[in-house]
Design a protein that fits this description.
By secondary structure, the protein is an alpha+beta fold. It has 20 helices and 28 strands.
């Protein structure tokens, strides 16, 4: 969402006249995602003097808004005044700028230039030091001289950014352990390692890396390499909101112009770039994921024009900042305070033993690679297995109704789906049909189910994450969907998977056999994995066949318990929302889904031995 003229007309500053002194004006500026509290001096006020008389008021405003812009106060006569203000508004003094990411000059004790990147470049949104395991809680920006053109400091609400990023992306980063950062220090590019570590003593560097859990490799006297893993998200305890808190998009080579990063890769190799980022497990980050992250920041960002003497105090966890390109002279000073770190955000219940045990379990299945991979041939095999799995578990009607589809990787608007007129236990990779968005059968000898095409094509188009879609008229699912209030009660662990992860589609008027009705359903589903269709069963979606299938299988278990619970005369004890959320985060993960799917797939191969004749000879095609 751009902060253009029309946006600013629609979102006017909100002046609040309550208990505020007459020598200031208080208002809220911003857009629907990001809002800034503004205190504007009306009289001839010096900020330090005014703060001494109104500390409680400022604390109250900051506690509520987490960001304050002070305007029209007298400009500081020296940088020491800025330093004094920082001390007065912080618990403890200002912090040193450790582990620098961009070039800065120290002007005064713990007062720095905001950045010295070339003015024609923009600096992407980021929380300060979110690439580390420790960071400042508060940031202060003081405008000594605004630029003639441009030079805004865009601000984003971090929780709004998290909510804007598709849930599949945030979940992928969390499931893969956060973000891995790689830095290659040399005299040629970026900043020297001596600047980063603040020492020329390699022994001190080794000690620092060990204390901060960084892997260090000394290539030669002038070149060092480090890599380490840090968080992707945080749970902000005061607000209980999830925060997107990392710099994956900024460190990744795709943040550079394509000409630049292509040259660097050709010259130095992908492993020797000055900086790069990966998923926490060391695998390459999807460029499409990074693009979605950048789009989320731009949608949420709010810009304001700097004026001389402006002071911005902001919560570094709840808000991000960046810089627009500019012309002319621009002098902004920055200071940081109140040391914070990941240790303050770890869940107390997540003991070291449990964490290590889970890591060891994950490592076992990563090392012992699944026999059911993700080549095109294997995807068709898994799709056929899934049809038979639904039959074996009695999740179909025992008839030709129901459908499972899978997008064809690297092909636009194509998906495989089971054909119309074939029973689920007759499906093989060879009789699956390939369909385009116009409903044309491009491969296969059978027709398509019209209702299935309408539903699946629109959901595939609407959601980037819905690679696989499963729709059945399962016995318990169909019965549950016919209830007057088909709300999934949090009865057990299976039910918790669907906490805040399903929608009710109540508009049943026969089979979904028009695109208009399918579009309404797809729009209703949006970023959820489950849709309960009134009198019509359910739909599950996922990035993979394993995820979509295990959601459907678990959903049927939950439907059964929910129907039985409603038949009981006694009240049932429901799981509270916090426990349900925690349970969902623990059990709803791609690796867990794949492990269970693989186990069921082996059973299906035993029950239907003929299916093994279709196991792909080559796993890479």
């Amino acid at each position: 969402m751009e902060n253009n003229f029309n946006t600013l007309i629609n979102i006017q500053p909100k002046e609040i006249s309550n208990h505020y002194p007459k020598d200031i004006k208080f208002e809220i500026i911003g857009n629907e995602f990001t809002k800034i509290a503004v205190i504007t001096s009306v009289g001839d006020n010096e900020l330090e003097d005014w703060l001494s008389k109104n500390n409680d008021l400022v604390d109250e405003i900051y506690e509520k808004n987490r960001i304050i812009l002070f305007k029209k106060f007298k400009s500081f006569s020296s940088k020491k005044e800025f330093s004094s203000i920082v001390s007065n508004l912080s618990t403890g003094g200002a912090l040193d700028y450790a582990e620098p990411s961009s070039p800065r000059t120290q002007l005064e004790d713990k007062i720095y230039t905001s950045t010295e990147y070339p003015k024609e470049q923009s600096i992407p949104q980021h929380n300060e030091h979110s690439y580390s395991k420790s960071w400042p809680k508060k940031l202060f920006f003081y405008c000594e001289h605004p630029s003639e053109v441009g030079g805004c400091t865009p601000i984003c609400n971090s929780s709004a950014v998290y909510n804007k990023i598709p849930s599949a992306v945030t979940k992928r980063f969390e499931d893969k352990g956060g973000v891995m950062y790689v830095r290659n220090f040399s005299q040629e590019m970026d900043i020297p390692w001596e600047t980063f570590f603040g020492t020329k003593d390699i022994k001190e560097v080794e000690k620092y890396c060990k204390e901060h859990h960084m892997n260090l490799k000394q290539i030669d006297q002038n070149r060092l390499r480090i890599d380490y893993v840090a968080q992707a998200t945080l749970l902000d305890k005061p607000t209980n909101k999830k925060i997107w808190f990392n710099q994956a998009h900024l460190f990744h080579y795709s943040n550079l112009d394509s000409d630049v990063y292509n040259y660097l890769i050709d010259t130095y190799g992908i492993d020797n770039l000055p900086r790069n980022s990966y998923y926490g497990d060391g695998t390459a980050i999807s460029i499409s994921d990074l693009q979605l992250i950048r789009e989320a920041y731009e949608d949420v960002a709010f810009r304001f024009d700097w004026e001389q003497g402006d002071l911005l105090m902001m919560d570094n966890i709840n808000f991000t900042h960046g810089r627009d390109p500019y012309d002319g002279t621009r002098q902004l000073y920055v200071s940081m305070s109140e040391e914070d770190g990941i240790h303050n955000y770890l869940k107390a219940a997540a003991t070291t033993k449990v964490t290590e045990a889970r890591k060891n379990t994950a490592a076992f299945f990563i090392i012992n690679e699944s026999k059911y991979g993700d080549s095109k041939a294997m995807l068709k095999y898994k799709l056929a297995l899934s049809c038979r799995m639904l039959r074996s578990l009695q999740l179909d009607e025992g008839s030709i109704s129901g459908h499972i589809s899978m997008k064809v990787p690297n092909e636009k608007n194509l998906f495989w789906v089971n054909p119309f007129g074939i029973l689920f236990d007759e499906i093989t990779p060879d009789n699956l049909i390939l369909v385009n968005n116009d409903g044309e059968v491009l491969e296969g000898d059978y027709p398509i189910n019209v209702a299935g095409f309408c539903i699946h094509s629109e959901i595939h188009n609407t959601s980037r994450e819905a690679n696989c879609i499963v729709h059945t008229h399962s016995p318990w699912g169909t019965l549950f969907s016919s209830l007057e209030k088909p709300e999934i009660l949090m009865l057990d662990q299976n039910s918790c998977m669907f906490y805040d992860n399903y929608v009710l589609y109540n508009e049943f008027d026969g089979p979904v056999n028009t695109t208009d009705r399918a579009i309404k359903l797809a729009e209703k589903l949006r970023d959820k994995n489950i849709a309960v269709l009134a009198n019509h069963g359910a739909i599950s979606c996922g990035e993979s066949i394993e995820t979509a299938m295990m959601y459907m299988i678990s959903l049927e278990r939950s439907f059964r318990l929910n129907v039985l619970a409603r038949q009981m005369n006694e009240k049932v004890n429901l799981i509270d929302s916090k426990t349900a959320q925690n349970s969902k985060e623990w059990i709803s993960n791609p690796m867990g889904f794949k492990i269970e799917f693989d186990a069921l797939a082996r059973r299906i191969e035993r029950e239907y031995p003929d299916i093994k004749n279709y196991y792909p000879i080559s796993l890479s095609i």
